[in-house]
Amino acid sequence: MALPSFIKKLNNRHFFSLAGNVIMSGFSIVIMAVLYRFLPTESAVGNWVFFQTIFALVDMFRTGFLTTATIKFYAGADKDRSAEVIGSAWALATAITFGLMVLNVPALLLLKVVKVDGLAFFLKWFGLSYLFSLPTFIANCVLQAENRFDRLLYMRMVNQFSFLIFILVLIFSQHLTLETLVYAYLLSLLITSLFVLVRGWTNLWSWKYKSKKAVLDLYHFGKFSVLGNISSYLLRGSDIFIIGSMLGPEQVARYNVGLKLLEVIEIPLRSFIATAMPAMASAYNRALKSDVIYLMKKYAGLLTFMLIPVCIGSVLFAELAVYIVGGKKYLGTEAANVLRLFMTFSLLFPADRFIALGLDVIHKPNINFLKIVVMLVVNVTTDFAGIAITGNIYGVAIATIFPTIVGIWIGYVALRKYEPFTLLQIPAVGYKELKLLLREKLHLKRDFLP
Length: 450
Prior knowledge:
With 450 residues, the protein is mainly α. The protein is 81% helix and 0% strand. The chain has 2 domains: 1-210, no CATH class; 240-450, no CATH class. The protein has helices at residues 5-10, 13-38, 42-74, 79-108, 117-132, 134-145, 149-172, 178-199, 212-246, 249-260, 263-285, 289-316, 318-326, 335-345, 349-361, 365-390, 393-399, 401-415, 425-442. It is globular. The model is unreliable at 1-8 (pLDDT under 50).
């Protein structure tokens, strides 16, 4: 039986990539809302958030080192080279995983003297969490490189849905504690990894094709990529640290409400980047310079135009959005205006992210790393200056635009040495692609758009 035409239109990598990110974000919000209500103490919630935050930071040694590098060398390569790359990625990922687990062993001996409960909890459970997530990590790299975002969606659903089910079982059986929560988390990681192994999505058979050359290719690319990822994490977190130290925790909470709502922008950004990376890497591997740059301009420009109505809606209904996430106590505070500022500046994010992606694709992760370091310095400097001038979190929110502009300019100057283009071509190509997309999907007349 033939599928309806509108369903066929949804059966593409862009839809599955977007759906995967929406589902991940949706499940994450639901799970946190449930935990806030049913974990027995506030300290338990805090320790869980601490565990997740530090785990994400440490996991960047693996994801930052290998994700972009694996996709770059795998996409568009022939069968033998692809097997060599994945086998070598398996070898490096395993080495990183067990290396960090070994480093974690001495830390376990210090559990009794660690005074910070959240840190002690992390040290206790990090090793198993990292090990159980290894096959899922490799599957994530393989599926992105192969543009199999349908499978990536299924994998993410297995992970998040199983975790939520285990949490609900613990709630209804009245056994939800911080310890049983981590058991549920470990079990969901293990189930997901077994799922991708059984389905063959990890290409485990490629292990025997690993090579010294491919390992070195991944290593030399990843050593800059991982530093860039860690610096990027610090770039996002520096605002919180500065506000907390200068203005206090209440202002952190208000600022974070607006920051959390940026997820509306991050979802399509991550989705477009995930689908653009294999295509751009494939063009680069085939020495198609103009195609690499055109794809960068196409995705960055198209996403910029698509975000305009989202940004306008967020500015107009900022108070409602703040109420939904933070509740009544944040109405009438700086939170809504912080959101408005973020959403206005976010129209620059696609250009920044896709220029950075272009640098990764053309094998210039070192420039991306240096760019992020400069952005971090600019961000910290302008944050302090913003607070000194305004005396509140508006100064920090306004300061966001400066590192973004600096990042775009540094990336642009470096990328145009590979293939000349101008920044104005990004919105021009984006508008052209938007017209083509609307005519195709909505069957518009040729003269409907200028």
